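### Sample
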Amino acid sequence: MGAEVEVKDEESITKLSTKSRFRYNSPLVQVSLIGLVCFCCPGMFNALSGMGGGGQVDSTATNNANTALYTTFTVFGILGGGIYNILGPHLTLAAGCSTYVLYAGSLLYYNEQQHQGFVIIAGALLGIGAGLLWACEGAIMTSYPPPNRKGTYISLFWSIFNMGGVIGGLIPFILNYHRNEAASVNDATYIGFMCFMSAGSIGIGYILDFSFQSRRMRGFVGISVVALLGTAIWGGGLANQLP
């Protein structure tokens, strides 16, 4: 009886090992997808913060928003794990990533109206969303990769995530290249960041949860949304620089 169980276990292991590592539900693809989510949301947030003052000449509003952000982040960084257990990965990612879009939108509003109240509220909500997102990311990164590949998969995630800050830095560079005077970045810069963040929260965090298509098709849809939006933003930025 024990020998039969061992044979069945060996057969199941053999079957699992023959499956493609690039299938939608494989650890490699799932880690890559969470990397793309963080590329679009916290990665772009890092690029936005890297401009100094969120791209504003007067950094008072963003300084106050960051205070609110990390205050709520401290609380929901602890509560995020429990919320993840209730909502699951898709809804947790969608809720967390949507706050990044709101924050970029608040800076767009501030660029026009110069009222910092909305920016501070958006910063506080972003702290909540960041707690949810990173709780979900931690759960995925510690449970999905096989034990002998955790280091490789973690390095893959961080490489994809940090490319968000690198590529995101090109948005203000392209859209503000010909500006000679010190001034806040233009509205198109914030719209570009919002497009990427929307792709992360809607295109990957929520569309992939729909059951109207196969998982493989949903994966292609999410990645295609990011690729198309990115191409449109770069093309629009380059066209904006033409005389």
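Confidence is low (pLDDT under 50) at residues 1-18, 238-243. This sample (Major facilitator superfamily (MFS) profile domain-containing protein) is used throughout the tutorial notebook.
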